[in-house]
Automatic annotation (TrEMBL):
ATP binds at K477. GO terms for molecular function: ATP binding; protein kinase activity. Residues 449-700 form the Protein kinase domain. It is found in: Membrane. It comes from the Eukaryota. Gene3D superfamilies: Phosphorylase Kinase, domain 1 (3.30.200.20), Ribonuclease Inhibitor (3.80.10.10), Transferase(Phosphotransferase) domain 1 (1.10.510.10). One of its GO terms (cellular component) is membrane. Pfam families: LRR_1, Pkinase. The lineage of its organism: Eukaryota, Viridiplantae, Streptophyta, Embryophyta, Tracheophyta. This is Protein kinase domain-containing protein. Its main location: membrane. It comes from Cannabis sativa.
Amino acid sequence: MAEMTDNTHAMDSAWRYVTKNISKKLEELENSEDSQYFLAIANEYRSLLAAASALLGNNNEDDDHQEFKLKFLDMTNQAECLSKRADEFQDKYFKYNIPYLGHRCFKDYLKDLQEFMTIWSKETEKGRRKGEKSLIEWMQQLNQSQRKTTFEEMKKVVIDLGTHISYVISDFLFVVTVLGDRINLMNNLDYFKAMIKLLNVEKMNDFKRVSYLFQFNRASCNQQSSLGVVHLEYNNIHGVISTQISSCKQLTHFHVTRNKLSGSLPASLVMLNNLIQFDISNNRFSGSLPDFSSISGLQVFLAENNQLGGEIPRFDFSNLKLFNVSNNNFTGSIPDVHGHFTANSFIGNPYLCGDPLPNECPPSQSNTLSEKSKDSYKSSVTMFVGYIVLGLIVAVDNDGDDSMYKSSFGGLTKSETSADDQSGFVSSSVLVVLTSPEVNGLKFEDLLRAPAEMIGRGKSGSLYKVLLGNNQIVAVKRIKDWDISSHEFKQRMQRLDKVKHPNVLPTLAFYSSKQEKLLVYEFQQNGNLFKFLHGTNMDYAFDWATRLEIAANIAEALAFMHQELKDDKIAHGNLKSSNILLNKNMEPCISEYGLMRVENSSPSKSSNAFFKDDVYGFGVILLELLTGNLVQHNGIDLTDWVQSVVREEWTVEVFDKALLSECASIERLVSLLQVAIQCVSRSPEARPSMNQVAAMINAIREEDEKSAVSFEPSQLD
Ligand SMILES: Nc1ncnc2c1ncn2[C@@H]1O[C@H](COP(=O)(O)OP(=O)(O)OP(=O)(O)O)[C@@H](O)[C@H]1O
C-alpha cells in the first residue's frame, strides 16, 4: 500500500511539475513565435513520459488479471478512435495538399483544421483525463491485488496515443511553419495547449522548419496521387531544400519565391522530369545550378535575386516561356538563347558575358567586370519578379483581423476589397473580361495563381508578363493610385472596348479597386519601337520604308481613335516609342490607349484640344524614327536639338546615318521632318490634328511608293 501511495504521489507530482512548467512556457510563448519553445515544452513532456515509464517499469508483478486487460483495451480503443480521426484529418489534408497546395487553400485548410482541432482538443483533453485516471486507478488496483501486469503494453498505449496525435500536431506545425508570421499564433494557443500535452516528443525533436516540410511532402509523395503543385511563396521559410524532394516525381509546379531558403540546390532536382514551373527567385540560394536541360517540359525557370554561381546550364530556351537568372553571381558566357530572352533575364551577374548582354565575352573568357558595372546593370533596369496575386492580397482570414491582410507591394487592403467581396478574397466577378475570345473564361484567380515577371515600371505603373494556366502569355499593367472612380474607369474601359483598330492593342480584361487597377493585354513578344530604335537588336533591318510604314500606321490609328473618341475626350495620354509595340508580323500596335486622364493643355475649349498632347507625343516618335536619337540625349532634348539644327539649316545632319547610307530620299526625309516639327510646336494650338498628320504622311508614303515603282527594273527597260 505504501508503494502504491509513493507511486501515485510520484506520478501526481510529475504531472503537476510538468503542467506548471508547460503553463509557464506557454506564457513565454505568448511573447514569442519561436519554434524552439515547442521543443522545450516537448522536452518537458518527455520527462513526464520518462517518469511514467519508470514508474510502470519498476513494477514487476506478473499476475495477469482480466479486469486490467479490459482497461488496456479501453485505452487502446481510445487510441484507435483518435487514430481514425487523425486518418480522417489526413484525408482532408491530402484533399488540399494534393494536387494543389496553394495560398487560397490555406484559408480553407486552416478553417478545417481549426474546426477539427476544436473537436480534437475536447476529445484529447477528455481522453487524457480519462487515461490519467485509469492509470492511477489501475496502479491502485495493481498495488492492492499484487498481480502480475503487462507493463510493456501499458507503455505502448501511452506511446501509441502520442504517435497518432503527432500526425495532427505535425500538420498544425506544418501550417504554422508555412504561413510563418502570417498566422496569428496566439489565437491558436488553445490548440497548442491541447496538443502539447499529448505530443510525441521523439518526432518533435526531429522538427526542423524546412527539412520537416519536405519530409512531410515526401510522405505525401509516396502516395499514388502524389504532390503535384507547391505554392509556398511569400512566406518566411528558412533552411535548405532537401535532396528528398526528388521523391516528389509528380511535382509539376514548385514556387517558393520570397522566402529565406538557402544552401545549394540538390542535384537530384533534375530527376523531377515532370517539372513545368520552377520559381526559387528572391531567396538566398548559393552554389551552382543543376543541369536542368534534361527536363524537356520546363516552361518557367525563375532564379533571380539569389547568390547562385557557376555557369548557366544549356536550358532548352526555345521551350521556356519565362526565364530569369538576373542578380546572381553567374560566370562565363551565356548559352545561345535563340533570341527568346533579353538582357533583363541576365543582368546583375558581373562575370557573365555575351549576347543578349551588351558586354562581349573576351576571347580568354577571363571576364573581370568591376563591381561598379554590376551596380550600373542593376540600376539600369529595375527588375522584380513575383506573383501579382501575392503582391495584391494575402488573405489568411481566421478572425477578420485586418493584420492578417498583408500586401507585399503595399497593395490592396481588406477594406479595399470588401467593397467587391466581403470574404476578403477578390472574387472572379471583379475581373471584367471584355469581348475577347483570347481570354474567354479567364478568372481573377487564374491571374492570381499565374507566375509573373515584372518587365518594367513606368510612370503610370508596373507591367508584368504573366503565364496563364493554358500557356497563354499576357501582359498585365498594374496602375496604382489613379484618381478615377471605379465606375468611371469601368465606363472608360467599356467605351474603349467598342473602338477597335488593328493597330491599337485592345484591353482583354480589367480589374478595378479604389487604389489599384489591372489591365490585361495580349503579350507582344517582339517588344517595343524604342528597343528597336535605340537597343542592341541588329537582327531586324529598320530601313526607311519600314520606318515610314510604321509612322503612317500609327498616325492612321491615332487619327481613327481621336475621331471615334472625340466626344468622350479620351486621348492616349502617354504616347511614346515604348508604348508602340511590334506584333509578330512586326506591325506597330499602340498600347495602353486611354490609361491617362488628359487635361486640356490648350487654351482652346474645343474637344480637339484634348488630343494635342498625343500629337506632340507622335511628333517625338517621328523625330526618333528620323534621327535614331533618344528623346533625352546627353541632357539635350531631342525636339530642341532638331529645331535648333533646322533653324541653322543643317538639316541633313539631323537624320539617322543609317537612313542616309541606304540613300533614302532626302526630299521625303525632310518632308517627314517638317511634319514632325509641326507636331512638336510649343503651342498646342499650332499643332495639326492627327487627321491632318495622317494625311500628310500618307502623301509622303504615296510619293515614296511612286518613286520606288519608277525604279523597278521592268519600268526602266
Ligand atoms: N502588351 C505588351 N506586350 C509586351 N510588352 C509590353 C506590353 N505592354 C508593355 N510592354 C513593355 O513593357 C515595358 C514596361 O511597360 P510600361 O508601360 O510599364 O512602361 P513604359 O511604357 O516604359 O512607361 P509608362 O508606364 O509611362 O507607359 C515596356 O518596355 C513596354 O514596351
